[in-house]
Amino acid sequence: MPSIGSKEIVALLPIVFGLNQNSTVAIPELAYPTYAVGALLAHAKFVTYRQASDIPDHTDLIWVNSPSNPTGEVLSADQLKEIVARGRQLSAPVVSDECYIELGWEAEPISILDPRVCGTDFTGILAVHSLSKRSNLAGYRSGAVLGDAKLINDIVSLRKHAGLLVSTPVQLATVAALADDAHVAIQKARYAKRREVLRAALSSAGFKIEHSQAGLYLWATNGSDCLETVNWLAGKGILAAPGDFYGPAGQHHVRLALTATDERIASAAARLTGN
Ligand SMILES: Cc1ncc(COP(=O)(O)O)c(C=O)c1O
């Protein structure tokens, strides 16, 4: 099912699934804020989890995000399998936001729909994709939901009556972008170079980089409170996101994006290393 980017799916799926004030949505401990926003828009509660066994009984929807924003952590097939098993035990759909899946650096991100995770049985599982990162086409607002045909049918039935449709030009552009992997490889190589430059500079400025095996961010800590670090980096003209924006567990981390230009990344690296 085509979607208007992936963000609207993350924000609206709890409502589309009919969740309400008696419902619970499980989201990763450190997460893109829109998972919580989606639960709140449906007046549902959200709980955070680190691993499948943390997901409480009576959970109605489980979000997965691998590679993760903000940490860049990649979940293994076994970890994904455990989350799928927990979802099925609770009859809660497991929805995996895979918008960074093409951007693996030190780990191979795999889809929740991969046979190593679920064989050929997609029951209760959905994957959410986007052209925003893969093809650098955030402005096109093009995403897609794949997986359990019954869940998709239910979602389509409701969404078409709400006017949540992707325009024909954007659908045609999406087909063209998905048929071409060359531009993805070129963009990925750009990010890889920026990542090496920024990673080396952060390390030499005393930061430890954690996770960050994939995706568009470096998840870094120098042990200080995240706002102090954001302030210190701002003094060097570098904008970082405070880790606690993604959950209290991020209090000592900051997130740096690889989306600045090569020239800006090189300049930031020089300021970090004092060169
Ligand atoms: C984890 C995650 N999901 C979804 C999105 C939304 O992206 P889009 O709506 O452009 O596909 C983002 C954007 O940063 C993101 O980090």
Quick summary:
The chain has 10 helices and 11 strands.
Keywords, please?
275 residues; alpha/beta; Aspartate Aminotransferase, domain 2; Aspartate Aminotransferase, domain 1; 2 domains; 7-stranded mixed beta sheet; 4-stranded antiparallel beta sheet; 11 strands; 40% helix; globular; binds pyridoxal-5'-phosphate
Fraction of residues in helix: 40-55%
How much beta, percentage-wise? 15-25%
What is the name of the CATH class of the largest domain? Alpha Beta
Mean pLDDT: 97
What ions, cofactors and ligands are bound?
pyridoxal-5'-phosphate
> How many beta strands in the DSSP annotation?
11
Counting DSSP H or I runs of 4 or more residues, the number of helices is: 10
Poorly predicted regions are none
Please tell me the total number of domains. 2
Cα radius of gyration in angstroms:
19 Å
Briefly note the structural class of the backbone.
alpha/beta
| Distance separating the two termini | 50 Å
CATH topology value of the largest domain: Aspartate Aminotransferase, domain 2
CATH H-level superfamily title of the largest domain:
Type I PLP-dependent aspartate aminotransferase-like (Major domain)
In order across it, which strands form the biggest sheet?
1-7-6-5-4-2-3
CATH architecture classification name of the largest domain: 3-Layer(aba) Sandwich
Please state the overall shape, judged from the principal axes of the Cα atoms.
globular
Order of helices and strands: EHEHEEHEHEHEHHHEEHEEH
Largest sheet: 7 strands, mixed
